[in-house]
Design brief:
The chain is α/β, with parallel strands linked by helices and 206 residues long. It has two domains: 6-138, 4-Layer Sandwich (Purple Acid Phosphatase, chain A, domain 2); 145-204. 20% of the residues lie in helices and 27% in strands. The strands form four sheets. Strands 1-4-6-5 form a four-stranded mixed sheet, with no helix packed on it. A three-stranded parallel sheet has the order 9-10-11. α3 (59-62) links the parallel β2 (47-49) and β3.
Length: 206
């Protein structure tokens, strides 16, 4: 259940509309006939939290997280399920327990995902009452997404045949800014996502 539009909520709850995402999901689950004697798996695209701890987010998804936390749903509403496969967040991670997991995206969509370890989550369900067996199959693209920081000379010297095709965000620390910075970088890095300068002059402007 991703974003509940007003018209969609009215169709789901014609008599009375629940307050907030968490109550809406509680009511949806409550009206289902869930046989707890059987194995039950839930697929959900939503922002779930465990207690007071929020999952790790990145720049590419923070823009769509609702201000004030109205879109947050506590995992306490999920006990009937033996495994919960979550979407919505780009970073693979568990929420409170190994059996509630965000699989994450197969690719990196912003520089804030630089350190994400992408993969495919493979779950093997055992008998009812047994914890699922979990395996992560790593995914790696031909090009990486990463940051480079240092003087222009240092950043240029680190380019080689293996990394020059990556998507890079460059922060230069030269106090005397070199000539034709962007052109020099593009000579060795095929995909320059952004260029920043961090020196005494730029820090004084902040």
């Amino acid at each position: 259940m991703p974003f509940l539009k007003p018209g969609y909520v009215r169709n789901l709850f014609p008599d009375s509309q629940p307050e907030g995402y968490e109550n809406a999901i509680k009511e949806v689950l409550a009206r289902e006939s869930i046989d707890t004697r059987e194995r039950n798996v839930l697929l959900s695209h939503q922002f779930y939290t465990g207690g007071s701890t929020d999952p790790e987010t990145c720049e590419s998804e923070q823009a769509v997280i609702i201000a004030g936390g109205l879109d947050r749903v506590n995992v306490s509403v999920l006990p009937p399920f033996d495994y919960v496969a979550l979407g919505h967040l780009h970073g693979p991670q568990k929420v409170s327990t190994d059996w509630i997991r965000y699989c994450g995206t197969p690719f990196k969509y912003s520089i804030s995902e630089e350190h994400h370890r992408k993969g495919i989550t493979v779950i093997e369900m055992g008998a009812k009452g047994e914890l699922p067996a979990l395996e992560i199959l790593p995914l790696g693209g031909i090009q990486d997404v990463r940051r480079e920081r240092g003087t222009l000379k240092e950043v240029l010297s680190r380019a080689d045949d293996k990394n020059r095709h990556d998507f890079v965000s460059v922060t230069l620390t030269d106090e005397d800014e070199p000539y034709r910075i962007r052109e020099q970088l593009k000579e060795v890095y095929d995909y320059l996502l952004e260029l920043k300068v961090d020196n005494v002059r730029t820090r004084e402007k902040r």
